[in-house]
Amino acid sequence: MRLALTNAPAAVADKLEWRTIGQGFDTAELPVLAEGRKVDRIMLARVDPAWFRFVVRNSPTGDKDLDQWMTQTGAALVVNGSYYARNGEPDTPLLAEGKQLGPKNYHARAGAFVSSSFFVGIRDLGGMDWKSVFQGAENAMVSYPLLVAEGKSRVGRPSRWLANRSFIGQDEAGHIIIGTTTDAFFTLERLAQFLLEAPIGLTIALNLDGGPVACQGISLNGYNRRCYGRWEARVEGDRLWLLSWPYGTFAMPVILAVFPK
Fold first, then answer.
1. Which domain holds residue 229?
2. Model confidence over 182-192: pLDDT tens digits?
3. For residues 237-242, average pLDDT
4. pLDDT digit string (tens) for 36-76?
């Protein structure tokens, strides 16, 4: 974060090596380099929807952190979802096992992750209505901003807001790519540019909530990995507001869980 706040050097991807831990499920850790040194890592999962299903969950009481979600659901992967309000309820429209949660009236211009019997992936809401996108789906989640689409960044106004980040995307083969950073080097604009150039093969990517809530866990076939968010810094001019979470793991009111079929 200190380096990112000073001269914000360009970030490049180091070597990427995928590891298969089950049929249709690969993992990787992608080092992020700036000025020749490692400044962040992105914990990646590549999931084939033919072998896995995707479920949105909400616990508005805020009584579950990453480890509790992993234990109680038995999921192969859990990652934080989209944004939530102060009462823990979704701040964007969601579908959780067919039940609509969050605001009924919402103007969405970014994207949505959708899981149905005929489509699993990201929908660009630039020219589509989220209600029509949700039709026929069992699980879905509106979020923002759309980071990458059609070979270019879709992040609008640049900012200096730094945070742990999570995103969900799709590659040319239709795999779902889920990523979470271990540090808070990236603004949204720089993350989008990095993902365009990184050797992940993303065709589209949607940002999820960030900061201490940006957590990801994997438990499959004896493989276990946890990534816990800790940092968020809002920067305006010479003023800095730092949010850190040194008191254990952060509650996750909204999650996306991945289960074997």
1. 2-260
2. 999 999 999 99
3. 58
4. 889 999 999 999 999 999 999 999 998 899 999 999 999 99
The predicted model scores a pTM of 0.93
Q: How many structural domains are present in the chain?
A: 1
Paired tokens of 126:
């630039």
